[in-house]
Amino acid sequence: MRFLITIFSLVIILNASILDFTYLNKAKEAYNKKDYKTASKYYSKVSNDEAKFDQANSLYKAKDYKNAIKLYDQIQDKNLQFKKLHNLGNSYAHIGKIDQAIQSYKSALKIKEDKDTKYNLKLLEQQKKKNQKNTNPSCKR
């Protein structure tokens, strides 16, 4: 009986792995064709952080920034943290949440120095200063 349970468990695991492989291939194919919504759908069928990251990237490419943010926030894999934070910054910037974008870029830079992240951070900090000057004009008499 124990042997049958072990065999049955292995069959289930192998089938799941085969399905994951199939879904990942279909997702990559759709992503390469710039069909980001379809890619996102297939990535969502695989339950690991790498697939979640790729799904979030697909949503980002589809300009679905709010849902991309939700997925990026769920990723725990330490190896993906820098990329996740950089992409979170990009997503927040696209929806106008400048403070959150700046914080994401700063957090990413604590993990790794990166010229693109530094550039994005500097750009948003300049934009924030400009916005503050426009909303708080000094009184002239």
Q: What would you say this structure looks like, in words?
A:
The chain is mainly α and 141 residues long. It has one domain (2-132): Alpha Horseshoe (Serine Threonine Protein Phosphatase 5, Tetratricopeptide repeat), CATH 1.25.40. The protein contains 7 helices and no strands. Helix 4 runs antiparallel to helix 5, helix 5 (81-94) packs antiparallel against helix 6 and helix 6 (98-111) runs antiparallel to helix 7. The longest helix has 31 residues, at 2-32. The radius of gyration is 21 Å and the shape is elongated. The N and C termini lie far apart (92 Å). The model is unreliable at 7-15 (pLDDT under 50).
Shape: elongated
Report the total helices: 7
Instruction: Characterize the main sheet.
Output: none
- Helix and strand succession? HHHHHHH
Overall mean pLDDT stands at 88
Give the amount of beta strand, in percent. Answer: under 5%
Write down the CATH topology: Serine Threonine Protein Phosphatase 5, Tetratricopeptide repeat
Low-confidence segments, given as residue ranges, are: 7-15
Share of helix among residues?
Answer: over 70%
Radius of gyration: 21 Å
Q: Compute the number of structural domains.
A: 1
What is the tally of beta strands?
Answer: 0
